[in-house]
Design a protein that fits this description.
With about 290 residues, the protein is α/β, with parallel strands linked by helices. Helices cover about 35% and strands about 10% of the residues.
Length: about 290
């Protein structure tokens, strides 16, 4: 097999299919309660292919984005329908969400209706990516044959997220992070960047040492998002808030250290983007 073309904007081309309905299996979405974390770890990878219209549960959007994207919450789709949805679209839905086990009692329709309506509403050959925790998602209320996956009714390709990421890293990035540390492409991108610059890049906390990292590092980007989102500069329990926000992006590890590094930096510049710019580029010049 030839190496994948990292410049190709179409995810279908990377997967090797002509289908426009794609199911990406990421078992991380199956975890709930205190184990629920890293639900959005695949988003930076999908964003590499120009997929930035994203639908996911509102609870995942908890105050920190490692990449920019346009969000429509799953709750909004259930309440308002899908007429105004923009494609291409990435839709995060676990099997439990599809079966309605995580639905509010007063919801007018569950994720089964939403997914089917999206499949019918999307323009011909326009990409719709369903990220879920199984390769055979089921919608028992809407599927005629019991036990059958609804994807059998559509022309669809199924891919395992870990396999896609592993292949992408193999041909495109020289990351110092093991895949066992994280399956979030963003952290591997930062690691590869720092490795080229000759600084520590082998652990996630190392990536956010703002006293050492280069000015063009992607690790600076989340700080601007935090400053923009926290216009009132509510500092109470801020480190804890950042740590909790990181849960949507990281599987495990010392998120508190990363949160402390981010908070130390934005406090140093008094939550001002201009001062962050000055520190960032002056520091680069001085080093």
């Amino acid at each position: 097999m030839d190496p994948p073309d990292s410049e190709t904007p179409a995810l279908a081309d990377f997967i090797g299919t002509r289908d426009s309905f794609l199911v990406i299996r990421d078992p991380q979405l199956a975890k709930t309660g205190s184990q629920a974390r890293a639900q959005l770890r695949s988003l930076p990878f999908l964003a590499q292919f120009g997929l930035r219209n994203i639908a996911h549960p509102g609870i995942y959007d908890n105050g920190l984005r490692l990449v920019e994207y346009d969000l429509v919450a799953n709750e909004t789709l259930r309440e308002n329908g899908v007429d105004d949805v923009e494609f291409p679209l990435v839709h995060y839905v676990s099997q439990e969400m599809l079966t309605g086990e995580l639905q509010d009692e007063d919801s007018t329709f569950d994720e089964q209706d939403v997914v089917r309506r999206l499949l019918r509403a999307r323009p011909t050959d326009t990409t719709y990516v369903l990220v879920t925790d199984t390769s055979t998602p089921k919608m028992p209320r809407l599927t005629k044959k019991p036990g059958k996956s609804f994807i059998d009714e559509f022309e669809c390709s199924v891919a395992d997220y870990k396999g896609l990421l592993k292949r992408y890293l193999q041909y495109n990035l020289d990351s110092a992070l093991p895949l066992s540390t994280t399956q979030n492409l963003y952290f591997h991108q930062v690691s590869a960047h720092h490795k080229r610059a000759g600084i520590e890049a082998g652990s996630i906390p190392d990536l956010f040492d703002y006293t050492r990292i280069p000015a063009d590092s992607p690790a600076w980007d989340p700080l601007y998002y935090l400053i923009r989102e926290d216009v009132d500069q509510v500092l109470e329990d801020y480190s804890e808030r950042i740590r909790e926000a990181l849960r949507s992006w990281t599987e495990r590890g010392p998120t508190q250290k990363v949160a402390n590094s981010m908070l130390d930096m934005i406090e140093r510049v008094d939550f001002e983007e201009d001062r962050l710019d000055n520190y960032r580029y002056r520091h680069q010049k001085d080093t």
